[in-house]
DNA sequence: TTGAATTCATTCAATATTCAACTTAATTTG
DNA sequence: CAAATTAAGTTGAATATTGAATGAATTCAA
C-alpha cells in the first residue's frame, strides 16, 4: 500500500471516487460544449459572456476577466479578438489606468447571452443538477467547497 | 424563476454547487498538469501512460485508446506521434485486423510511468482525496456515479 | 525624482487541436 | 461475389493555445 518512495496509493474507494469525478468533469464539459454548438458558441465564449453579463456596466478589465475565467492573458487576448470579430464584445480604453483595457459586452453580445442562457441552464439541469438528489446536491457542495478553497490558494502559490 | 421559454433557472444552492463543481474540476486539472510539468509530461501524456500500463501486454488499439481517453482519433494520432518521438510508446501492426494499429508502451515508457506515478498520486491526494472526509468521499461517489452513468449514455447518442 | 521593478496587455513563434478529406481494410447486402 | 457501406487510422490545412519577449504605463524605493 506504499509506493517505493513512501507515498500512499489510493484505496479502491478513493480511486473509484477520483475516477468518477474526473470522468464526470470531462464528459460534462464535453456535453455542454456540444449543447452550445448550435448557437455558434464555445464554452469559453459562453463563460466570458456570463462574466461580462454579471459585471457592472457589462464590462471587465482584461486581467480580471482572465483571472475569473482561469486563462492566461495571452489566451484571453486572442479569445477577445475572436469575439470582437464576431461582434459579441468590444475593447475600450481605461482612463484611470492607461495601460488597461476593458472588454465590454456589445448589444449583440447581450442579446446573444439572453437568448442562449436558458438553453445552457436547461443543459446544466439535464446533465447534472437534475440527476442529484437534494442531499446529493448538499453533500456535493459540502465536500467540494474545501477542495475549491484549497485550490484557489494553491493557484496563487504558483 | 422561469425563463421566457419555460426553462427553470437554478436556485441559489444549485448554482453554488454547480459553480463549485466547475471550479474544482478546472483548478484541479490545472494543478495536476502543473505537478506533472517537472517530469516533462502533460496530463494527456500521463493518461495515455496510465491506460497502456493497465492494459494487457501494455498495448491498446488506437480506437480503444481514443475512446478511453475521450479524444478524437485524429488528436490521438498526433498525440501518439509525439509520444513516439519522445520514446514513450511505439506503434505496432495488428495482425487480426490489418487496418488496425496498437499503441504499445516502450520500456522507457513503462519506467517513466513507474517513476512518475507516485508523485502524481501524491498530488491527487494533496489536492483532492485528502481534503475529503470519509463521508465526503462516499457521498461524492454516490452523488456523481449516476451523473457519470447518464453522461456515458449521452456520449453515445451523439 | 530618477532608476528599478511591477503590472497590463499584446505579439510572435512554437505546439497542439480540430475538422474534413483521404487510404486501406473489413463488412454488409442485394 | 461485386458494389456499397462502414470502420480504422492518418494527413494536412485551419484554428487555437502556450510561453517567452516586448512595449508602455504605473508603482516603488532610495
Quaternary state of this entry equals: homodimer
Counted by DSSP, the helix tally of chain A is 6
CATH class of chain A: Mainly Alpha
Taking Cα atoms only, what radius of gyration of chain A do you get, to the nearest Å? Answer: 19 Å
Mean pLDDT of chain A: 94
Strand order of the largest sheet of chain A: 1-3-2
User: Structurally, how many domains make up the residues of chain A?
Assistant: 1
Span between termini of chain A? 30 Å
Structural class of chain A: mainly alpha
Name the poorly predicted regions of chain A.
none
Largest interface: A-B, 58 and 58 residues
Helix content of chain A: 55-70%
Structure notes:
Chains A, B: Residues 14-149 form the HTH marR-type domain. Two copies of one chain form a homodimer. By secondary structure, chain A is mainly alpha-helical. Chain A has a single domain (12-127), classed as Arc Repressor Mutant, subunit A, CATH 1.10.10. Chain A contains six helices and three strands. The first copy, chain A, has helices at residues 12-36, 43-54, 62-68, 73-85, 107-127, 134-156, and strands spanning 59-61, 89-93, 101-105. Chain A has a three-stranded antiparallel beta sheet. The first copy, chain A, is globular and about 55 Å long. Chains A and B meet through helix 1, helix 5 and helix 6 of A and helix 1, helix 5 and helix 6 of B. Chain B binds a DNA duplex (30 and 30 nucleotides) through residues 42, 44, 61-63, 66, 71-79, 81-82, 94, 97-101.
Amino acid at each position: 500500500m506504499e509506493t517505493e518512495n513512501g507515498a500512499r496509493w489510493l484505496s479502491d474507494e478513493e480511486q473509484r471516487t477520483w475516477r468518477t469525478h474526473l470522468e464526470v468533469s470531462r464528459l460534462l464539459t464535453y456535453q455542454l460544449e456540444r449543447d452550445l454548438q448550435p448557437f455558434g458558441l464555445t464554452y469559453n465564449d459562453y463563460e466570458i459572456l456570463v462574466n461580462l453579463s454579471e459585471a457592472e456596466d457589462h464590462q471587465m478589465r482584461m486581467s480580471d476577466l482572465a483571472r475569473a475565467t482561469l486563462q492566461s492573458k495571452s489566451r484571453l487576448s486572442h479569445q477577445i479578438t475572436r469575439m470582437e470579430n464576431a461582434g459579441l464584445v468590444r475593447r475600450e480604453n481605461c482612463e484611470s489606468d492607461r495601460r488597461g483595457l476593458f472588454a465590454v459586452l456589445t448589444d449583440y453580445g447581450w442579446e446573444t447571452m439572453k437568448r442562449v442562457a436558458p438553453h445552457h441552464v436547461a443543459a446544466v439541469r439535464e446533465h447534472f443538477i437534475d440527476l442529484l438528489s437534494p442531499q446529493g446536491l448538499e453533500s456535493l457542495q459540502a465536500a467540494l467547497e474545501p477542495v475549491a478553497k484549497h485550490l484557489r490558494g494553491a493557484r496563487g502559490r504558483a
